[in-house]
Design a protein that fits this description.
Blueprint (H helix, E strand, L loop, with lengths): L1 H9 L1 H20 L1 H6 L3 E11 L8 H15 L22 E5 L12 E5 L27 E6 L7 E3 L11 E4 L17 H10 L65 H13 L7
């Protein structure tokens, strides 16, 4: 949200684009186009840009692939821990019908493993998109063809951040802290199950935080089947956790768009799936179809 607010304040085009994105999203869902989109499997081509100073930050191919595996389980609702969803919400555990694969061709058509590796002199990066430039990082591959993921050492205790659709193409994508990426190698508890990337890719597909980024009960995440809640949850809450007079079931803290530990987040809802598919069908130019 730091980066989102910065773009909102400095680029009038970004604010206009976000308004347009919401109008198109609403039309796509109302017309049934988003529902038709989810009936077809979407495969998104991914490039992972590993930015490292120390060799330990140069994460292995196996760690990268473990994250792709997590994304595929979580977005297809094939994650075994979905059974942790409370009984009242088990019927809302939704399959987005989106799968991810490391790119096999680079922007010039040459064979690739979908991973770039760039040595940097930077000890850490701020949420200023500097890892997305040739000066210290790696420029993105074309946003209309790839989901760009940068893995690097982030400062300010950040696990990751993403750019909503409607932002500049030159900075489009997702950034993840190396120790919160995948399930192997440098991944460290309590963020060692790959859910930071699940959360941030959700943002990239136009999902908002489940508490709507308002410290109170007046905001909306634009999804009708996620209960309103007062603010972010962290750690491993006990069900039910009530806020915003949302009893008896309380906050849907086990949703991927809250801030709980990796072991506690297990689901997207049909409403969130509709927004993500509207994004792929009508905003991101059918990327991956």
């Amino acid at each position: 949200m730091i980066r989102h607010e910065y773009l909102s304040e400095t680029q009038a085009s970004y604010r206009r684009n976000l308004e347009g994105v919401e109008r198109r999203t609403a039309r796509s869902i109302a017309s049934g186009r988003a529902a038709r989109a989810v009936s077809r499997l979407v495969k998104v081509s991914v490039v992972v840009h590993v930015i490292f100073r120390r060799e330990v930050e140069n994460i292995s191919d196996a760690q990268v692939k473990s994250q792709i595996d997590v994304l595929n389980r979580d977005f297809r609702a094939k994650n075994p821990d979905r059974s942790q969803a409370p009984a009242v919400w088990k019927s809302l555990v939704a399959d987005a019908n989106i799968e991810f694969a490391l790119a096999t061709r680079d922007p010039n058509g040459k064979a690739t493993d979908g991973i770039t590796r760039t040595k940097t002199t930077r000890t850490s990066f701020l949420p200023d998109d500097s890892m997305k430039t040739a000066a210290g990082g790696h420029a993105p591959w074309p946003a209309r063809r790839y989901l760009n993921i940068w893995v690097c050492n982030l400062g300010q205790n950040l696990l990751g951040y993403a750019q909503f659709p409607g932002g500049p193409a030159k900075t489009d994508g997702v950034v993840i802290l190396g120790s919160a990426f995948g399930t192997k190698g440098t991944a460290a508890a309590p963020f060692n199950l790959g859910r930071t990337a699940t959360h941030e890719v959700g943002h990239w597909l136009n999902l908002r935080h489940i508490w709507a980024d308002t410290l109170g009960c007046g905001g909306s995440d634009f999804v009708s089947d996620t209960p309103n809640q007062a603010g972010p949850n962290t750690g491993k809450p006990a069900f039910p956790h009530l806020s915003c007079t949302n009893g008896p079931n309380g906050d849907m803290f086990m949703n991927y768009m809250d801030y709980v530990d990796d072991v506690a987040m297990v689901m997207f809802t049909p409403g969130q799936v509709a927004r993500m598919n509207a994004c792929l069908a009508d905003i991101r130019g059918g990327l991956g179809r």
